[in-house]
Write a structure and sequence with these properties.
Bound molecules: guanosine-5'-diphosphate, magnesium ion
Order of helices and strands: HEHEHEHEHEHEHEHHHH
Strand order of the largest sheet: 3-2-4-1-5-6-7
Shape: globular
């Protein structure tokens, strides 16, 4: 319902909202094929060992529901398919106002209200929307692989600034030391005051380093909680979300008015130089000052 958007989604969102706020969200991002789903599957093992339940939202807008990447995610996570303490959802979005960047927090809140204490959100680290989604997690994990320029590519995608933990996955491959050195040189770009994002080497396919990754996530959580940064981050996030919703609604409202006979007549007047584009826009949505 939340993915589909519309009035029903809004009703669900309003109903669950009072019951949210207890879950901790972990975002995992990186290039396609970096090993995010494999790592997520391993993290689920670490979480389940503590007895906690966990939800996963795998977000890949480039793949349709039944597409290859998502099917692959399902297969990699199928070890957990019969575990009632694990909920996995591959997310796409249809009519949701504001698209994925607003649908994902809504979906996460449903899992939060359902009582899942941990929510892992996997997104590909390409594209502004995906980066925004994952940057909105409490702890953001950025996955890179050994290889010339992988850290540079991640930097270009804007992933360095949002990393709380770096994962150097596929550490069984050549070039690990070089990539780790690259990561260490950009480490200073990331993190909050008092937190330097650690670099954790993993071989996700073998489960190597994944317990250390979970330890790093929990250490970051402790850092955020003890410094008060968690409450600040969450307030910033809600502020951004309210602003984004307001913006999306205003845009949808404007689009709704920019159609039909009266609008075409207005465009004809602009074309005839009887009025100018700004004055015409003001007729559509009302004057909003000098913009
Ligand atoms: N050699 C090696 N391969 C890995 C490792 N982690 C994942 N892979 C492989 O990389 C491919 C992509 O993994 P996947 O988890 O789907 O990546 P995602 O697209 O980032 O979710 C799969 O074939 C995995 O088996 C690793 O640590 N070492
Ligand atoms: Mg994946």
């Amino acid at each position: 319902v939340v993915e589909a958007g519309g009035d029903d989604a809004r009703a669900v969102g309003a109903a669950v909202y009072p019951f949210t706020g207890a879950a901790y969200t972990v975002g995992i991002t990186g290039a396609p094929g970096a090993g995010k789903s494999t790592l997520t599957g391993r993290l689920l093992v670490s979480v389940r060992e503590t007895g906690d339940a966990v939800g996963v939202l795998a977000v890949d807008p480039s793949s349709p529901f039944t597409g290859g990447a998502i099917l692959g995610d399902r297969i990699r996570m199928q070890d957990h398919a019969t575990d009632p303490g694990v909920f996995i959802r591959s997310m796409a979005t249809r009519g949701h106002l504001g698209g994925l960047s607003l649908a994902v927090p809504d979906a996460a809140r449903v899992l939060d209200a359902a009582g899942l204490p941990w929510i892992v959100i996997e997104t590909v680290g390409v594209g502004q929307v995906e980066v925004e989604i994952v940057a909105a997690a409490d702890t953001t994990v950025v996955v890179v692989n050994p290889g010339w320029g992988d850290a540079v590519q991640a930097a270009k995608a804007g992933l360095m600034e949002i990393a709380d933990v770096f994962v150097l996955n596929k550490a069984d491959r050549a070039g690990v030391d070089d990539t780790e050195r690259d990561l260490l040189t950009v480490q200073g770009l990331a993190g909050d005051r008092g937190w330097v994002p650690p670099v954790v080497r993993t071989v996700a396919t073998e489960g190597r380093g994944t317990a250390a990754l979970w330890d790093a996530v929990r250490a970051h959580r402790v850092h955020l909680e003890t410094t008060g940064a968690l409450a600040r981050r969450r307030a910033d996030r809600l502020r951004d979300e309210v602003r984004a919703i307001a913006r999306a609604r205003a845009a949808a409202e404007a689009d709704g008015r920019c159609t039909g006979v009266a609008f075409e007549a207005l465009v004809a007047r602009v074309l005839a130089r009887e009025t100018d584009p700004y004055a015409a826009a003001a007729q559509v949505v009302g004057p909003v000052g000098d913009s």
